[in-house]
Every structure is written in C-alpha cells, then in structure tokens.
Amino acid sequence: MPKLKPNKNKLYGLALLSSVLCIVALFYSGVLRNDAQQKVQPKAEVSEAAKGTEFKEVAAAPEAPKLTEAEEMAQKVKGLLILSDEENKKISELVKQILDLKNNSSLGKDERNKSLHPLNVKLDKLLNRYTLEKLKGTTSDFADVKATMKKYKGILSSDTENFIATYEITDGGEIEKVKNRRENVTAELEERINEVWDDIKKLLPTSALKKITYFEPYQGRSGAFLDYDRNGDTLLGINVDRDLERLPCILYHEYGHLISLHPSQRDGEWGGYEASYEQEQFKENSYMKKFYDQFYKYTYDDQNADKKGYLFYLRHRNEFVSIYAATNIYDDFAESFTCFMIDEGGENGREKIKFFEQFPELVELRDQIRALLQKNNLHPKRFLI
C-alpha cells in the first residue's frame, strides 16, 4: 500500500488545541482551588459597633498648590497679621516690586540696594500701620514690649563698658592677667573676677574655653559682649556686677556669637553688630548663612528697616524665643542657641531651637555642657537677655 504522508497542518492544529485545553484546565483548577480555600476560611467577626455601618473609600486630600515666591514672601512678612483682601493686595504689590528688583541681574549691587531701600521702608511702614491697627488693642503686654525693646536698642547703641583688666586664657582653661585696664584695681575686685571665672569653668568645658583668647571683665550697663580683633583673637567680656544666677544664659548667648561670627565662618572682616548680614559675607556652609536661608530670607530687610523693633516683634513673636532675639539676626541666633544648650524655651521659636540639631558638633557640645551642669549640680533658669 502506498505510504500515507502526514498532514502537517492537521498535526499543528491538534497540538495547538491540546495546549489551549491544558491552559484552560490549569486556569479552572486554580480558580476552583482558590474558591475552595475561600469557602473553608472562617468569616471575620464584625463588632457590634461596626454592624450596619456603611464603609466608603476616603479620597486622599488634594495637595496644597505650591506658592509663588511673591506669595511666600507676602505670607512671611505679614507674620501673625490677619488682613483684608484690600490690605493683602497692597502688601503683595510692594512685595512684587521688591522681588522684581532683587531678581534683576542687570542692576549692580549698589544700584539695586539703593532702589530697594525706599521700597523696604515703605513696606515696613505699611506693616507697622497694620500692626498698630490689628494688634495694639488685643495685645495685653503691648506697652511692656515697647519699653523692653527700647531699652535693648539703647544698650546696643551705647558703649558703656568700664574695663578692669585683660586676661589671657591658658590651655588648661585658667586665666592669667596680661594688663590692668584701670588704676587701683582693688583686691576685692580681683576676688570677684576670679569668682566669675570659676563659675564660667563650671559652665563651659575646657575645649570650649580654649576657643576664647582673652577674658575682659568690666562694669557697665550690658551683661556681656563678644568681639574679635584684627588678628582674629576672640575677646569675651563679662559684667562682673551682674547677678551670677544669670551667668549661664549670658555666657551661652555670647558663645553663640563666638561660633557664628568666627573668622572661619566669614569671608569678610567683622564689622560689628550694626553691620548688615550682606556686609559680613558669610560662607555658604556657615551657621549664619543656613540660619538666614531658613528664617530670614524674606523678613530680614523688614526687620532691618524697622528701627524701633517692637512692632516687627509683635507680628512675628511666635518666631522668637525672647524679645531681645528680635533686635537683629545675630542676637536671634545667640538667644536660640542658648535655649538649645540648656533645654529651655517656650512655644515661641521652637523651629529655631531645633535648627541646631542638624550639626553633630553642636549636639556634642550641648551634651558636654549638660553633663558639666549635672556634675556641678547646676540648673540654669531661663534668664534670656
């Protein structure tokens, strides 16, 4: 008999049909197995409270629209003020003019600053007017804040230190007299100076004391000062007539100045506390540059334009740990640093206290200081300047 040739198309069709049947069988096998497993699983119990309750899927809250730079600045400069639409419009118009000038790269630095000054003054006057209208009648300590700020501004603008002597700090954290700054320094006054320094040693570790070059005790109005000479040496002045109970806060405040205004933090020479932030030329990774970027980017010019200060403080009081902190950016840094060191501070200015937690070296210093305080059984009170 003749040999039959296999029909390839037929074989391929049978193979394909067989594969499809296998897949279908496996699919239904899985469905039946899952169905069987679901049938044997016990029903979840429903609490009495949940019975009869209709559960609906909760939609995710929509993201808040991102603010423009002008909107963000207008919000920052207003602080605690709640304004009408018309008042907000006036603020926004000024803010836009200020930002347009700041972002105008065709203008030179001096020309830009000259054009910005009258706009910043105008904005400050408008904000001050609204502050008086909105907050004066509702702020119980309005008069006290005004008087306190006036006192602080007076101290900052006066030079009333009556120096006694200059002492050099040794590697061991002791003081050695370099020279007398006045005639007839009494033994009683010498004893008082040594008493103050002994207390300072209980408040700062030796490693921190070594960063101070000279100790200059004095008598006068202010509590203390921190300065640098042309050689970059650190000068710490302490008023020896002050109540020593206030010494911890005074000392940590000045040490805040030491770490933030040190020559290693700046490209320019120290111009004093009256110098503007821009003049000081702080380095990109400096403490003060980071502090400015986080807290002063939009409010610095307004604070600088407000010579009396108390109205600026009233509309931003939730941002400051003390009234004195609102006098300028440098003292704001120092007062916030003080609270960070002694674990003190109220609800106001909490973000500024947390600011220092990002720096491991400052966290280490804080831990050393707190260990020293515990060792000497000292419990500093919150005497912010």
Sum up the overall morphology in one term.
elongated
Strand portion, in percent?
5-15%
The number of helical segments is 15
> How many β-strands, per DSSP?
6
Largest sheet: number of strands, sense, barrel closure: 6 strands, mixed
Tell me the Rg in angstroms. Answer: 34 Å
For the termini, the CA-CA separation is 119 Å
The CATH class label of the domain at 8-32 and 158-375 is Alpha Beta
Find the structural class using helix and strand composition.
Answer: alpha+beta
User: Helix proportion of residues, in percent?
Assistant: 40-55%
CATH topology of the domain at 8-32 and 158-375: Collagenase (Catalytic Domain)
Structural notes for this entry:
The chain has 385 residues and is α+β, with helices and mostly antiparallel strands. The protein has a domain at 8-32 and 158-375: Collagenase (Catalytic Domain), CATH 3.40.390. The chain contains 15 helices and 6 strands. Strands 1, 2, 3, 4, 5 and 6 form a 6-stranded mixed sheet that branches. α2 (69-78) packs across α3 and α8 (247-261) packs across α13 (329-342). The relative contact order is 0.09.
